[in-house]
Design goal:
By secondary structure, the protein is of the alpha/beta class. It has a domain at 53-292: Type I PLP-dependent aspartate aminotransferase-like (Major domain) (Aspartate Aminotransferase, domain 2). The chain has helices at 40-43, 52-64, 75-88, 99-118, 137-142, 166-172, 196-209, 279-292, 295-313, 338-347, 370-385, and strands at residues 19-23, 26-29, 34-37, 92-96, 124-128, 159-162, 177-182, 185-186, 192-193, 212-216, 240-243, 254-258, 320-326, 329-334, 350-351, 353-355, 359-362. Strand 16 (353-355) and strand 17 form a beta hairpin. Helix 2 (52-64) packs antiparallel against helix 8 (279-292) and helix 9 runs parallel beside helix 11. The protein starts with 18 loop residues before the first strand and ends with a helix. It binds pyridoxal-5'-phosphate. Pyridoxal-5'-phosphate binds at residues 98-100, 132-135, 183, 187-188, 216, 218-219, 244-245.
Length: 389
């Protein structure tokens, strides 16, 4: 199946497995071998696989009205908007199809707000070094990693990177800055939670200078860290929240929420998308929220996260350099090649992700059981303790 004559563009390095089916937190290949899933399709399949409520919701939505365009208001989409704004305490939401598209919309909203209030020229968006915000041109430009800024010139203007410290922030705060975008935990950058003191000061400065604080919750949001959104761990509130990955439980949906300061910035014609707010994806998202966005489920995620972290901390391997993360978003920094580890784990029936150049990243479905966590850690431990390149 995978060869140089593949009709697929050469953009992904495929792992040597053909997954065809899933159930709960297990995935199966075409030979019937099972794998414990610690990837969730990069934090997407929050409810695992073949989840009864989710499948039913998707089937019902698909057989009622699969799409009707945003020139018609759809009840399911409206219901999802109500639910998300209520849960987050934000004023309005816009639905897109992906994370990158969500951030693009968030940038447009921030720039229009600033234009209406301060006029031309106040449009710069700051982001952090080592961040990741998506693959479209502006989202890529906002991504604070030089390796992404080759070939595709020219990039949109008005982006600048800072280190996650006050000195770097203060220096970058010229009069042309309208917004700053951060991830509560830098995911692709290697699972680095942000420093709480930095976030507290950042919020204060943003408020004083009317600079919009955008939280990119695309990977960290929708229960992943044991709170609905990761910013809640820092006791602050952003002005804009972008989300995607985990919300649809496997169907493409993303978007951004804004507070009341921004609620009247967009008018018809300012922004839009064909598929965004699709009824089937929205119905799937409502099911995810029903199962995840409640105190009991979130508490369980926190507990399972601590359980996993503690088991990992008990592994005595010289290859483990650090264990980081919150809830069920965990990174193991190693001094071995995480991709080689990934392939070995695959052979042993465990699917994991990598991040940066030296991190094994764990993003199990949020419904994972302690029993499965224990099994997975046993495999992990075995590989690390018997490591040979
Ligand atoms: C995955 C991710 C994105 C991009 O999302 P896509 O759906 O792939 O466009 C943006 N920001 C963060 C933090 C992400 O993890």
């Amino acid at each position: 199946m995978i060869n140089e004559n593949s009709p697929l563009m050469n953009t992904y390095k495929y792992l040597p497995v053909n997954l065809i089916k899933g159930n709960g937190c297990l995935l199966y290949d075409n030979k019937g071998k099972s794998y414990i899933d610690f990837t969730s399709g990069i934090g997407v399949n929050s409810l695992g696989y073949n989840h009864k409520d989710w499948v039913l919701a998707v089937q019902e939505a698909a057989s009622s009205l699969q799409h009707c365009s945003n020139i018609f208001l759809n009840k399911t989409v409206y219901e999802l908007a109500e639910k998300l704004t209520k849960l987050s305490g934000m004023s309005k939401v816009f639905f897109s199809n992906s994370g990158a598209e969500a951030n693009e919309g968030a940038f447009k909203l921030a720039r229009k707000y600033s234009f209406l209030k301060y006029g031309k020229g106040r449009n710069k968006i700051l982001s952090l070094e080592n961040s990741f915000h998506g693959r479209t041109l502006a989202a890529l430009k906002a991504t604070g990693q030089e390796k992404f800024h080759n070939y595709f010139f020219p990039f949109p203007e008005g982006f600048e990177y800072i280190k996650a410290d006050l000195e770097s922030l203060t220096k970058a705060l010229t009069n042309d800055v309208c917004a700053i975008i951060v991830e509560g935990i830098q995911g692709e950058g290697g699972v680095h939670p942000l420093d709480k003191n930095f976030i507290t000061s950042l919020k204060k400065i943003c408020q004083e200078k009317d600079i919009l604080l955008i939280f990119d919750e695309i990977q960290t949001g929708i229960g992943r860290t044991g709170k609905l959104f990761c910013y809640e761990h820092f006791n602050i509130k952003p002005d804009i929240i972008s989300f995607a990955k985990g919300l649809g439980g496997g169907l493409p949906i993303g978007g951004f929420l804004c507070n009341n300061k921004l609620q009247n910035v967009f008018n018809p014609g300012d922004h839009g998308t064909t598929f965004g707010g699709n009824p089937v994806a929205s119905s799937a998202a409502l099911t995810v929220l029903k199962n995840i966005a409640n105190e009991k489920a979130l508490k369980e995620i926190q507990e399972k996260g601590s359980y996993l972290t503690n088991l990992l901390k008990d592994i005595s391997s010289p290859h483990i350099k650090a264990i980081r993360g919150i809830g069920l978003m965990i990174g193991i920094e190693v001094d071995i090649n995480p991709s080689s580890f990934q392939e070995k784990a695959l052979k042993e029936g465990l699917l994991v992700l990598t991040a940066s150049t030296n991190v094994i990243r764990l993003l199990p479905p949020l419904i994972i059981s302690k029993k499965e966590i224990k099994k997975a850690v046993k495999i992990l431990k075995n590989i690390l303790e018997n490591w040979e390149e």
